[in-house]
Design goal:
Structural class: alpha/beta
Distance between the termini: 109 Å
Radius of gyration: 34 Å
Largest sheet: 5 strands, mixed
Length: 315
């Protein structure tokens, strides 16, 4: 994902804590709307691959230290939660979540879907095009706008307004109280309220991922080969793209008003033998023509015979 300093605005408590560590050495040359810059280095975040298939996969070893974890949080399971999300989004359980059990080899193949928006729709109102560009909707905690980031921030504000505190894993300002066990019913209820009032439209550039997984048990031979590196409760995780190609969707203006009128007229002419000239003629004969006839008839009634004015008898 993007480095903390490029994803978070610095208003939250976590950003201020991260600044005390070595996060400053990480750089990002990527934005959702424009992608990587031309001068982006290979080591810049988010990391990228240059091929597809298992040969170009990102492989990692995950170690589970059960003595440091709370069994209630994991519901008694010795598993890792793998979240699949855009690099521009803060990880949250609302994202697609996969489980990786310990002492297993897990392989995840990813197929991305990208939604973009044509530049000709930039002048349109966001409510009409149903999305926000990056410069149209500013968030307090995030530098990058996405729908999920917006909803996460809005829920944090709603919980704070209703409960007077925020759960420890939500973004918050430095002096915001953290909810304890006594406030749990309150913030659970507040977090489940609808996000319709948050005005969180989708971003005009969004990323979605379809995943498929394969799991296999770690055999004794594999454990012996990795005896120095593999902890007793470990997972070997491999992630790769299914293909170099992806499915893209682009929001565009289907047709202008003039094109719409032309299409309507063409369909009516094809199906009904009807044209807009015929429509004008119908309007004329139903409205203007009767009015003209009425005026002409009225004029004739008022016309005076000149012979009668001179007192002569007509021949």
């Amino acid at each position: 994902m993007m480095p903390m300093r490029d994803l978070l605005s610095g208003e939250d408590e976590w950003s201020q804590e991260f600044n005390n560590y070595n996060w400053k050495k990480y750089h990002s040359s990527w934005k959702p709307d424009t992608g990587y810059r031309s001068d982006a280095l290979i080591g810049h975040l988010p990391l990228r691959t240059f091929g597809d298939g298992d040969y170009h996969s990102a492989t990692m070893k995950l170690e589970l230290h059960s003595e440091d974890m709370n069994k209630q949080c994991a519901q008694g399971l010795d598993v890792f939660y793998i979240l699949i999300h855009s690099p521009a989004e803060w990880p949250d359980r609302s994202h697609p979540t996969l489980l990786a059990s310990v002492n297993m080899i897990s392989t995840i193949s990813i197929k991305p879907y990208v939604v973009t928006t044509a530049e000709e729709l930039i002048p349109w109102d966001p409510q009409i095009r149903h999305c926000y560009f990056q410069n149209e909707r500013k968030l307090k905690f995030f530098k990058v706008y996405t729908k999920n980031n917006c909803i996460l921030e809005c829920r944090s504000f709603n919980i704070l307004a209703q409960c007077g505190c925020v759960p420890f894993y939500y973004l918050r300002t430095k002096n915001t109280p953290v909810c304890g066990p006594a406030k749990m019913p309150c913030w659970v209820t507040a977090s489940q309220t609808s996000s319709d009032a948050c005005d969180c439209l989708p971003g005009c550039t969004e990323f979605f991922f379809k995943t498929s997984t394969m799991n296999a048990q770690l055999t004794e031979s594999v454990k012996k080969e990795n005896e120095t590196d593999l902890a007793p409760s470990s997972v070997i995780l491999s992630v790769y793209y299914q293909s170099k190609n992806f499915i893209g969707h682009n929001r565009i203006m289907t047709f202008t008003f003039g094109q719409f009128m032309g299409n309507v007229g063409g369909i009516m002419g094809l199906c009904l033998g009807f044209s807009f000239l015929s429509l004008v003629e119908i309007i004329y004969f139903l409205t203007l023509r009767p009015l003209v006839n009425f005026c002409n008839a009225k004029r004739k009634l008022k016309k005076v015979d000149p012979t009668r004015v001179l007192g002569e008898e007509p021949i």
